[in-house]
Each structure stands twice: as C-alpha cells, then as structure tokens.
C-alpha cells in the first residue's frame, strides 16, 4: 500500500518533458518533489504564476508570492506572473498539459466529486471545475477508500459533481487505473497489494485484463 | 493627465452604503485591500454582497466583516480557510453563491470590458449549471455565464500613480486587475503612490481609466496564511 | 461656413474636465489642438495608448509609437500602453467618455454610415463599429453636404450602416445639431449661415425651435 | 524552464502549408512580424487565410503576400492603406471578411482562453450581424461572436526570453498579445532574445506557455506609415 509520498512519486512518472503542469492542493503538491530533474517541466499555480519553484529559504518568504494552497513559494528563472483571468485563460484554453488533483469520489465514467458534502462541508470548488472541464489530461491522486473503509471509486458519484466524464487516470494508494469505456481498467498494483484486494476496494466496475504488474518507481 | 488621488481611505470610501455590492481583490490573504477592508469594518456598512475569491480568515481580511455579520451574501470560489464562514453558510445566516474560480475571474473581466455574457465549459453537468443555458461548441458542452454587476471594486496594487495607473507584484496580482473597472466605481489602494510620469507606460498593468480613486495605504500587514520554508 | 479646423474648434467645447476621449481619423484628430489647457483630458487611441501627446519633434519619432491613424505620436506623463483586446474592453465597457468621429451619412434617428460604399470603396469599419455601439456620448464631425451638394443628414441612411441609433450630436460646417426623438434638432448656426441654408442642406427632418444662436468659439 | 528557442525564421516556420489559416499581429506597419512575413513570401505558401487587423501597404508587410496572390482570404478590420487590397477585394480575386476591430481582438483572445463564444454590441443592426444570433442584455442588443480558429499565430515582440516570455513596446503591442496562444502553434519573433531569468516576471506581458517557438529577428526595418512631426 502506498503512502502519500509514494502516490506522488508514482504520479511523477506521468510528467513528461516539456509539460506545463497544474498541481492541486494536498498529495498533488508533493508530485513536484519527485519529477526527474533531467526533463524540463514548468508548474503553473492558478493564482497567477508559471515557473513556480520550491519553498523559500527561512527568512526569505514573500507574502506577495504564494501558490494556490496559500503556501509561500519561489519563482524560478523564466517565471512569469499574471492575473486570475489570464491564468484561467491558460487553463480553459488547454495550454496546461497535465492537471493533477485530489478527489472525494470518482465514478467509472470519469465523473469527479471533490468540493462539497451537502449539509456538512462546503469549501467551494476553487479552480477545480475550470481545471477538470478544460484539461485534456487529468490524473486523480486519492485514497482508494474512505476512513470507514468504503470505496471512493464508484459506479456513480453520490456527492455533488465537480465535473463529468473528465478523469482519465487514477493513482490511489492501491493501484493505477485508467478510466475508459465507462469502466475502471486496472493497470498496476501497489507493491504487495493483490488484484483481489483492489477489486474488493472498488465499488465500480473494475476491468482486469491479463497479468497486472506491480508498480515501479 | 486626469488626477485620481484622494487623501485617504475615508475619502476613498465616500458613497458606500448598506446593501451595496462590492468586488474585492485578493487570493487568500495575498493582495487584499487591507486598508479598505478595515474602513468597511469601521463604517459598519450592513447587508452587503461581496464578490471575492475567498473570505479571509477569522481575524483578518473579509473575515472581519463576516464576524460582525456585515455580509448578506458572498460570491466566492473557495472559502475553506474560514470556519466562521462555513458556520454562517451552513446555518443559513449568510447567503452564498459558489462560482468556479475561472468563471469568477471572467465574470469580472466581462463586466469591465462590456461583454454581457460568454460561454465556458467550467461547471457543465454540475450544480453550477443549474438554471443556466447550455450549448455545444466544437463537440463540447458549455454553459452561459453573465458579467457581474457591482457598485464598487476595491483593489490593492503595489505601485500606482496619480493618473490611477497600477502595477502589481508577484501573485498579489490575482483578481485585482480583472476587478478594475468592473464595478461602477473602482477604488485602488497602493503601497507606493508616485507622480504621473514615474511609471514606465510599458509596465502598467491596469491603465488609470479603470480607476476612479487611488490612495496610498497607511500600513500593510500582509499576513502570510501558510508559511512554508526550507532550511538553508 | 466652418472650415475643418473650426469644426474641430467647436467640438472641442464639448470636451469636459476629466474626460477620456477617443478621436477618429480626419477632423476629429484636430480637436486635440483646441481643447482648453486648464482642464484635464486624456486621449485614447484604440491601437493601445491612453495619454496620447502631440506629434514628436523632428528626429524623435518612434516607429513603435503611433495613433490609430498610423501617425507618429508621443506619450504624456501618466500614459499607459495596452493591447487591442484591453483597448476595446475600455471602449465596449464604456470607460471612454466621449467619442468623436467622421461620417459619410447620418440619419435622423442617429444611424451612422462611414465605412463602405458598395462596389466602390471599402476601407473597413476599423474600430468605428465598436465605438458607436458602445459609447454613451458620440459626436459626429462632418460636412453637411457631399461634393455634389447633396445632404449627408438624411431621413434614412442609404449606405451600409456602422451603427444604429447611436449618434447624439453633430457638428457640421453649417450647424450644431442634436439627434433626439427621431429628428435633427438645430442648436447653433455657423457664423453667417442662415437657418434657411441649413434647412435646405438637410434632407432629414430638422426641428427649429425659437431663435437659433450663432456658434461661439 | 521549457526552452522555446529555435535557430532562425526558417526553423520557426516549419510546418506551414498551403491553405492554412494564419493570425498575424500588428497595427498598420507597427509591430508586425517582419521576418516571418518575408519568410512566408520566400516559401511562396499559397491559398492562405490571414487574420490580421490590416493588410500592410503595397510594398511592405502583408502587402507583399497580397501582391504575389498568396492570400485566398483576409479577415481584417481596416484595409484603407492598401490599393492592391481594395482592387483584389472589389474584383473578387480575394475573399474578405471585415470584422469590427474590437471583435477581431476579442475573437483572438477568446480562442486563446477557451471561450468559444461571447456577446458584443459591436455591429448590431449592420451587415456584420447578418446570420448571427442576436440577443438583448440589459436593454441593449448584442450579437454572438465566435472564437477564431487558426493553424499558426505569428507575433512580434520587443524582448523575449528562452522560456517564450514576451514583452512588447509602445503601441507595437496592439494585436500581438491577443493572438499568442490563439493559433495551434504560436511563433514569436523578437528584437532581443535573452536568457531565462533576465526579464522581470512582473513585466512579462505574455507568459511563455502561449508561445511554442521564439527567435530573434535578423533585422527590423520598422517602416513608418505616416511620419508626423513638429518643429523644435
């Protein structure tokens, strides 16, 4: 079973040379730590920066320089700042190559829910609705089940949707799956996790074809 | 040159009234019009609608207005950092319209630029699309969104000049530019106000035509919401 | 009868303190020369400048600094440059207080035609359609009649329209008129021009109420 | 940093083909991609559609392509300076779509920003509105306009860096920013190409994400269309 860092590490393998990448809050943010340093990648944060760098050194933080998670960051050489309208112009205009975000639920046709639990929790969709409606290439980083052990990979989402039929790939603590033809397709198992365990943790239809390899990092 | 300077935040806020709609720039606590927000608290303006991406935190930014129950309705994209906000929303004390962040920015920009409506894919198939016109373009479904209407836009810039020209710094830019000229009256507070001619006209982010009043803020706390650093 | 400079001079009286003004090509461009210098006015040119100044001194011209008429210009202190999308955002968003432009024909309900003579001349509408559709306050600078002596102030325009019901005021070589309630209303006569001469040169309905004063400059 | 530099104008124009649609920045002869236009003439690409506010003059800018009959269709707002253009248009040799200037800019910007359609008042009640959906908003009639589609955007900036970031100068900015990222591939030529890190990220007008290829132009004539000066 993967921990959060390992999920991020596995997702980092999906980041290709020349990609502009938007990282959501939480596990996705960790992906930046694992991207190979022999490829060129630029991170976009939707609050208005391209070319986002690592956290600043102690004492060098700038309140006017944060990411979408409101964390203090730095800007790399070649960075640029812009306003929110232009930022979402980039996103809606499909100039960002890869979006990585978290989810509370994903359905087997690629619907995603991650912004609201009616009556309980409403943080808002932030930029997630724009991101999932626009991106060609969306990877969801998530735990396979909730704290009660219930599957978060469902036939149909039960929570209010963030977007419809948009998720292409899921990396959970148990598996890598592709969403295709209205089903989850199992691609890789987490080290030490069996196909049966994944099957059991997946409420939606899971297609298992041939031998499912263990993930490599 | 048309001079837009006013003496201070009190003069800058002349004409605000109960029940009005305000746009406020900022992302989290970054780039928010601190001095104006404090003046709104001081004036105790009531029953206002605020268009702002976030709602501050409990003891800073728009959270100060929230605490005093000055806000009737919030139009935002993300309010996760504010416990009092969530409480007022869930209890029904405050009306809330949640809007996708890109749509929020574009509805401001549309108001500024005289585009009454536009189509976006954001929110199609979700609660956000309810009651809205939908249409397919290039094989993809979109929803029609309308420009916002607001009485005042309150923004914060880094530098400004007497002519109302604004330059922003880093990610403190965020929603501020799109809101300039989107409300009937735009009030800009800046960290440094300089005479006309000192800013390079190539570097101006927002031309003064979009700003009716400008003043230099008395002080800036610029609170950091999530301090994240690494060791040297 | 006014010459072009006098038309510009009369229009300049309509320019008030604190106005942002867009000047069209031709006579409107001359208006800048006659604006009182004790008021604050900024000129916008739709190709991307606010705070346009006079022509440059000989040898100081900059090919990267022109107005919408493609003439070399200067920028005054407090000027700003911006792109065409933002420029027309200003115009459509009604941030420009006054638009002054030329016309080939104006009708008594405020329609204007100034971009095309079918089969003969097509220069294009440039920014004129955006300007007339958006501006609250439009003044037309024009000759009252064409070279053949025919009226250019008509019941209905004969040429393809630039905009409908948008012209508020006209300053011609003969008169100042307001367009209201579907008629031309005579406000002022050019020095030495009689009401009858104006009436004769106007094909559209001309309302003459009371004594019509001579223009003052 | 993702490096966007290409060696020269030839490499920058790889992939262009007959029958394609190009966007070209510039207003009159100001801020036009001179080196790219010369390359289009050299390559003798045929039957192209050009989206450009103007069409150059007879012996400079897009006028060079016009003279060689390389252009099948022009989409412009104003073509008054070009006699050959008017001749080809009136004779029917070339197809022409005249678009209000603000609508032209906004249709580029819309293509860049994933807005498939928007409403504008420009052109309502005129030929421009023919065949288009009209609708009333706030008591005023508007027409629906669509985003452009283009294969290449060709733009000219003052300074650029390896990451493709662009800074424009004076009114040479005009249509160039709105076209960046509006075509499938955006090619930028700059007067000065600098290493990443040399441009202040606050001053960047167009972030490199909107630019696929960048190169420093060999030379710039920057011809003046209407020299107007006053005596010292």
Automatic annotation (TrEMBL), chains A, C:
GO terms for molecular function: CoA-transferase activity. Keywords: Transferase. It comes from the Bacteria. PROSITE patterns: COA_TRANSF_2. Belongs to the 3-oxoacid CoA-transferase subunit B family. This is CoA transferase subunit B. It comes from Aequorivita xiaoshiensis.
UniProtKB/TrEMBL annotation, chains B, D:
The keyword Transferase applies. SMART domains: CoA_trans (SM00882). One of its GO terms (molecular function) is CoA-transferase activity. Keywords: Transferase. InterPro entries: 3-oxoacid_CoA-transf_A, CoA_trans_fam_I, CoA_transf_BS, NagB/RpiA_transferase-like. The keyword Transferase applies. It comes from the Bacteria. Belongs to the 3-oxoacid CoA-transferase subunit A family. PANTHER family: ACETATE COA-TRANSFERASE SUBUNIT ALPHA (PTHR13707:SF60), KETOACID-COENZYME A TRANSFERASE (PTHR13707). This is CoA transferase subunit A. It comes from Aequorivita xiaoshiensis.
């Amino acid at each position: 079973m993967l921990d959060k860092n390992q999920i991020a590490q596995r997702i980092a393998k999906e980041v290709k040379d020349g990609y502009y990448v938007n990282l959501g809050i939480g596990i996705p943010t960790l992906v930046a730590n694992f991207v190979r340093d022999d490829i060129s990648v630029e991170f976009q944060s939707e609050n208005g920066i391209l070319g986002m760098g690592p956290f600043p050194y102690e004492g060098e933080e700038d309140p006017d320089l944060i990411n979408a998670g409101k964390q203090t960051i730095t800007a790399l050489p070649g960075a640029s700042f812009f306003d929110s309208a232009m930022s979402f112009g980039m996103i809606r205009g499909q100039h960002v190559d890869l979006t990585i975000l978290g989810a509370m639920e994903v359905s087997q046709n690629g619907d995603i829910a991650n912004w609201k639990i009616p009556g309980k929790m409403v943080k808002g969709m932030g930029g997630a609705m724009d991101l999932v409606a626009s991106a060609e290439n969306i990877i969801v980083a998530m735990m396979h089940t909730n704290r009660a052990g219930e599957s978060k990979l469902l036939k149909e989402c039960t929570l209010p949707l963030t977007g419809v039929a948009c998720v292409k790939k899921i990396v959970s603590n148990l598996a890598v799956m592709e969403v295709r033809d209205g089903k989850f397709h199992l691609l890789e198992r987490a080290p030490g996790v069996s196909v049966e365990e994944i099957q059991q943790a997946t409420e939606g239809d899971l297609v298992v074809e041939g031998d499912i390899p263990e993930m490599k990092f | 040159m048309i001079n837009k300077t006013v003496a201070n935040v009190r003069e800058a806020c002349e004409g605000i009234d109960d029940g009005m709609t305000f746009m406020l720039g900022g992302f989290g606590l970054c780039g928010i019009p601190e001095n104006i927000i404090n003046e709104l608290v001081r004036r105790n303006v009531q029953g206002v609608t605020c268009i702002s991406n976030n709602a501050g935190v409990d003891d800073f930014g728009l959270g100060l207005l929230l605490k005093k129950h000055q806000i009737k309705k919030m139009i935002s994209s993300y309010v996760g950092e504010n416990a009092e906000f969530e409480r007022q929303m869930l209890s029904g004390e405050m009306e809330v319209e949640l809007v996708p962040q890109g749509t929020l920015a574009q509805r401001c920009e549309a108001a500024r630029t005289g585009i009454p409506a536009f189509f976006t894919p954001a929110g199609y198939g979700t609660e956000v699309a309810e009651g809205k016109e939908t249409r397919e373009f290039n094989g993809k479904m979109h929803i029609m969104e309308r420009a916002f209407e607001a009485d005042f836009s309150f923004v914060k810039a880094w530098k400004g000049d007497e002519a109302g020209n604004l330059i922003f710094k880093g990610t403190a830019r965020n929603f501020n530019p799109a809101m300039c000229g989107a409300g009937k009256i735009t009030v800009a507070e800046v960290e440094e106000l300089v005479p006309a001619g000192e800013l390079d006209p190539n570097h101006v982010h927002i031309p003064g035509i979009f700003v009716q009043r400008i003043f230099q803020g008395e002080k800036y706390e610029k609170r950091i919401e999530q301090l994240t650093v690494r060791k040297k």
